[in-house]
């Protein structure tokens, strides 16, 4: 290679691209706080730090540095201080606590000291204190039981529920924390009847609305209930709404109404699913329910209720959009309708100033303030080749219109047949997008695949979000089978167009994408190589081991005892005797969502069928890893697997990397 010849990003460079999140605008509209996540290669860990953009200076600088992680920045109501979460080591483990720091000060002040850590917080409207969510204290009975017998847990019976607390900042600073740490904390809910997920405070500071579930059990996730807490009287009012509730909740500026996500309880399909939700407004004065979006065929999330309307975010195919919703149902667009993926957004209370985190096609995320870009993360690509991503569409075998993202080299030759790799997204209620973001893909090195000579297809198969409720439901009781059709029909179109070599095709995916890949591995002989990452291989195995069995019932319509047939026909292991494709299996040891027995079952089945297979277990990892080195290993293993079985390259360094 010539010295000045450009190359694609290496795997280490891909993982080194900073990830931006948690944008928050100060209420005066002049400053933006956000989180930048970067790989620390020396310590083999990702670090999250809060950064601040100051409009007057026109530059970004870190608010927190060194080895102390920080996240979830929130400006104080007077725009002079920032509260954020940072883990504190209590000698046993690290738990997030709230810190408050003036943007001009060097050190942050630790405000909370919760044994189990803080999960969510908001400023009290005057800025004097903070409301926050943390697990309830361990009961005296449990403590005594531990002393007598040791530690054990009765599944489905014993929970530490999230409670709401209030703490006044000045009292924390004035008190000696060693002697008076509990005297400054006010516990506002007792953790007996419900588990707090989200909350908001009225602008006058008199009321708190809580989105809560009966327990922290994932089975209860969508059984949300609304409570109104009168702060002065310490009185709770339960609001009964016969719908599935989840997600965010927010007060109107005058405190008389609340907005939340709701979904109709259906008898058969998606009994506990929230994806086909819309917005609902509850009027506390008269109990009236308003649905301002009557013809909005997309999941909508309320972010904040301003003087000019409700800031909402929704997905439209491969775009994530934001707008201001009025109570009469009209929406003022605040983003481009196409070529726009907005990760998160923050708006001032008057609705006049906005910050958001956005990526456009073929670029990574940047932070914007009032539509002006204030970061420059895409400079990371300077001097490098970069694949081209575009949206293509095709028809599946039964006529369903399917879209996908096709990545091709910068010097793509339309007269050449390329080896093709299919990368299947997880979810299934998620999608692939034509943007460059390692926060969406930390497992598969697409740029390296392109450099090797592959083209890459990422299909938005049936069940993907953003294509309307009918498309979302079109995989009901047909998992695997219709997904395979959607994948293979996309492959066939690229083959028919002369772009892809039908004899050199591979498929991979993680989580539900791993399930689809596993289905392709055992159900089909069309692929030369497969990689199954954290994938479901047997729905019965999954059902009894996962922490979300309701997810399986949601998509298959029943449990395995009452409808074994649907569990059989949708499970990759059913077709193990016809398996013939070399299959790499990668799995996180501590993945509770897709537990590790799935991996062992597929591995043993493939070995018994004398199919080439490797099983890699990542110690201590759940769905993903906080070690960039592990992500390098995952990517390199996939690169070598497909390069070997499709391109014929050596795999001698597969184990030692």
From TrEMBL:
SUPFAM superfamilies, from UniProt? Answer: alpha/beta-Hydrolases, DPP6 N-terminal domain-like
Q: Which processes are annotated in GO (biological process)?
A: proteolysis
List GO molecular-function terms, semicolon-separated: serine-type endopeptidase activity
The residues covered by the Peptidase S9 prolyl oligopeptidase catalytic domain are 449-646
Instruction: Offer one Pfam family short name for this entry.
Output: Peptidase_S9
Q: Which Gene3D superfamilies match?
A: alpha/beta hydrolase, TolB, C-terminal domain
Q: Which InterPro entries match?
A: 6-blade_b-propeller_TolB-like, AB_hydrolase_fold, Peptidase_S9_cat, WD40
The UniProt family comment states: Belongs to the peptidase S9C family.
The protein's name in its UniProt record: S9 family peptidase
């Amino acid at each position: 290679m010539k010295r000045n010849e450009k190359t694609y990003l290496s795997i280490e460079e891909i993982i080194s691209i900073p990830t931006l999140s948690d944008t928050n605008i100060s209420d005066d509209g002049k400053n933006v706080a956000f989180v930048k996540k970067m790989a620390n290669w020396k310590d083999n860990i990702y670090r999250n730090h809060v950064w601040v953009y100051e409009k007057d200076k026109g530059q970004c600088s870190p608010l927190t540095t060194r080895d102390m992680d920080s996240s979830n920045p929130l400006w104080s109501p007077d725009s002079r201080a920032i509260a954020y979460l940072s883990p504190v080591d209590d000698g046993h483990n690290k738990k997030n606590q709230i810190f408050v720091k003036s943007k001009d000060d060097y050190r942050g002040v630790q405000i909370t000291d919760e044994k189990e850590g803080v999960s969510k917080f908001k400023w009290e409207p005057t800025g004097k204190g903070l409301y926050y969510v943390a697990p309830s204290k361990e009961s005296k009975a449990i403590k005594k039981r531990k002393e007598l017998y040791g530690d054990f847990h009765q599944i489905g019976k014993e929970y530490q529920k999230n409670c709401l607390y209030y703490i006044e900042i000045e009292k924390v600073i004035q008190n000696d924390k060693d002697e008076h740490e509990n005297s400054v904390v006010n516990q506002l809910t007792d953790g007996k009847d419900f588990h707090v997920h989200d909350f908001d405070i009225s602008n006058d500071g008199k009321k708190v609305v809580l989105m809560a579930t009966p327990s922290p059990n994932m089975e209860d996730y969508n059984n949300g209930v609304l409570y109104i807490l009168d702060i002065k009287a310490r009185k709770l009012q339960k609001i009964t709404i016969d719908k599935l509730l989840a997600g965010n909740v927010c007060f109107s500026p005058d405190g008389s109404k609340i907005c939340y996500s709701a979904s109709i309880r259906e008898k058969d399909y998606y009994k506990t699913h929230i994806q086909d939700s819309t917005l609902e407004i509850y009027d506390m004065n008269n109990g009236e329910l308003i649905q301002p979006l009557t013809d909005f065929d997309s999941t909508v999330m309320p972010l904040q209720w301003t003087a000019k309307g409700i800031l909402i975010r929704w997905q439209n195919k491969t775009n994530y959009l934001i707008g201001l919703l009025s109570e009469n149902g009209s929406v003022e667009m605040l983003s481009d309708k196409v070529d726009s993926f907005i990760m998160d957004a923050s708006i001032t209370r008057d609705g006049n100033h906005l910050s958001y985190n956005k990526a456009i096609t073929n670029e990574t995320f940047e932070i914007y303030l009032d539509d002006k870009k204030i970061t420059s993360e895409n400079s990371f690509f300077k001097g490098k080749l970069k694949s081209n991503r575009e949206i293509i569409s095709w028809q599946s075998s039964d006529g369903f219109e399917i879209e996908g993202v096709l990545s091709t080299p910068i010097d793509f030759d339309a007269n050449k047949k390329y080896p093709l790799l299919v990368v299947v997204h997880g979810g299934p209620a998620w999608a692939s997008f034509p943007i460059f973001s390692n926060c969406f893909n930390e497992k598969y090195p697409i740029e390296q695949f392109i450099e090797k000579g592959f083209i890459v297809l990422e299909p938005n198969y049936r069940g993907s979000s953003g294509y309307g409720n009918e498309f979302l439901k079109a995989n009901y009781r047909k998992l695997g089978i219709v997904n395979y059709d959607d994948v293979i029909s996309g492959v066939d179109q690229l083959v028919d167009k002369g772009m892809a070599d039908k004899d050199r095709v591979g498929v991979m995916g993680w989580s539900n994408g791993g399930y689809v890949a596993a289905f392709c591995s055992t159900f089909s002989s069309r692929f030369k190589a497969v990689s199954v990452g954290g994938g479901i291989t047997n729905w019965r195995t999954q059902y009894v081991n996962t922490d979300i069995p309701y997810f399986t019932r949601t998509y298959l319509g029943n449990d395995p005892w009452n409808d074994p047939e649907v569990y059989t026909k949708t499970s990759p292991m059913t077709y193990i005797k016809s398996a013939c494709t070399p299959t790499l299996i990668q799995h996180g040891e501590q993945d509770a969502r897709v537990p590790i027995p799935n991996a062992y079952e597929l591995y043993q089945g493939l070995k018994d069928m004398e199919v080439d297979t490797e099983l890699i277990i990542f110690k201590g990892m759940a769905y993903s890893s906080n070690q960039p080195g592990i992500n390098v290993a995952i990517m390199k293993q996939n690169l070598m697997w497909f390069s070997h079985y499709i391109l014929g390259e050596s795999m001698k360094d597969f184990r030692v990397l």
